Amino acid sequence: MSSTFNFVITNAGQAELANAIATGTPLSINTVKLGSGYGYTPLPTMTSLQGGTIVYTGGIYSVSAYGNNQVNYTVKLDQTIGNFYFGEIGLYTSDGTLFALTALAALQEKVATTTSSSGNIISFVCSLVESNVVPNITFSNTNLTNANVIEVSLPDNLSLPSNSALPNAYSIQTGDEKGNPILALRETANALWSFSTHKMPYFSGTVGTAPTTTSIPCTTIPTQMPTAVAPNRFILQFTSGVNKGVCRYVNSASLSAIAVNTLTTAPAAGDTFEVVQSDIYYMYIAGFKDLVQVDTVTTTTFNLDMSVANVFDITLSPATGNNVAFTYINIPVSNEPISSTLILRQDATGSRTMTMTNAHYTEGTVPVLSTGANQVDVLSFFTTDGGSYWFGSLSMANVY
After folding, report:
1. CATH fold label, 197-282
2. Higher pLDDT, 60 or 155
3. Core-most of 63, 78, 160, 181, by most CB within 10 Å?
4. What is the pLDDT of residues 224-266, one digit of tens each?
5. CA torsion sign, 174 to 176 to 179 to 185?
6. With 50 as the cut, is the pLDDT of residue 134 above it?
7. How do the domains of the chain map onto residue ranges?
8. Could you please report the per-residue DSSP string of 346-393?
């Protein structure tokens, strides 16, 4: 038997959830009960199953995200359990409160058997209405063998509990660089955290000499990282030492140290850590997502900052002369193809020209821009070596 049921969260459950949010105390959902009742409409005012007989009590087998504001809890009934009939299901918190319940239209039979090794699976969905509980799991492993928590918002500094502590699922509302909430998960108390919005590794490192609670020295920081750091773009998690499992956003970086929000305990030299990057940033540097910067250039030189965007919509309006010399800076990676689109708009004067540092064109001929007032051209560039050599072309001329 495999079925999906929609649950009604009780008033008592809503009250416990609200208290968990207000106090920062995680809400543990760890028990399911099957009852003999059926055919009734579950109401938020109910505090117990209505059938009068509890035919089964057990733990949660796994939990995963079903959609925004929905969590899918799964109960596995071993093949040896039975025989009994049930028509209602209750989800309980660790203090025995009925958090949510559902009633089926008809009784379902659970038959004990010794011929099957799979048992029976009951999968049910709880729709959460609290605005700060927005689970959205998109990474591959969504089954939590020790899951026992409804996510509760955490402070801005990613102050997840120590590696040995439970619960093991949190929603961080400060989120990624675009403000999307982060769901932090781990399968066991001693596992490392995984993040719904920061799935791609950026680099792994070893803590150098003289670390502090806010500065993590390291000699292997990628050369692009100091200019790539943006609010909530990178998460640092210690993978060994006293801070194993402790996470912080990266505030800034140099080629010798990473700055983070204050740690409770400073790491030791030799401890290891990993840095993961936001999916938004990874998609950008991988060429799957475009970020746009719009600007009017009144100088004769201008830097196109690839840590900010890869599509640049530029109006040419130099105060002196007619030419603007462009240079790409802060190329995100040095060993992967990176592309950029340059939209050039003439101002009301027109006849503006451009040059691009390290750019190479078909037969060595620099494209000729449209010269009329307010005319628009589109150029495309890509590099495979971090910007030492840009392949360029005029994609569209005199666009209107």
Report:
1. Elongation Factor Tu (Ef-tu); domain 3 (2.40.30)
2. 60
3. 63
4. 788 778 888 888 999 999 988 888 889 999 999 999 988 889 9
5. negative
6. no
7. 4-127, 197-282, 290-399
8. E-SS---EEEETTEE-GGGPPPPPP-STT-EEEEEEEESSSSSSEEEE
